[in-house]
Design a protein that fits this description.
The chain is mainly β and 60 residues long. 7% of the residues lie in helices and 25% in strands. It has a two-stranded antiparallel ribbon with strand order 1-2. The longest helix is centred in the middle third of the chain and has 4 residues.
């Protein structure tokens, strides 16, 4: 039986004992300027297919 309504909120992954150690090392705000598309080969090793720069401007 499916539960109706919004999904239960879970704590974000990666937060926990290391957060106090890692937070001072990360820039704030944390900028993401590229998006990478990867694919797996026959041996399940991942390889970069395409790297897309996020500029905030539409491509022409």
């Amino acid at each position: 039986m499916r539960q109706r309504g919004p999904p239960a909120r879970r704590p974000a992954r990666g937060r926990g004992p290391l957060e106090p150690e890692l937070t001072p090392l990360l820039p704030a705000p944390f900028r993401i300027d590229t998006l990478c598309l990867a694919g797996a080969d026959e041996e399940d090793r991942f390889h970069l297919i395409e790297r897309i720069r996020l500029t905030g401007r539409p491509e022409s």
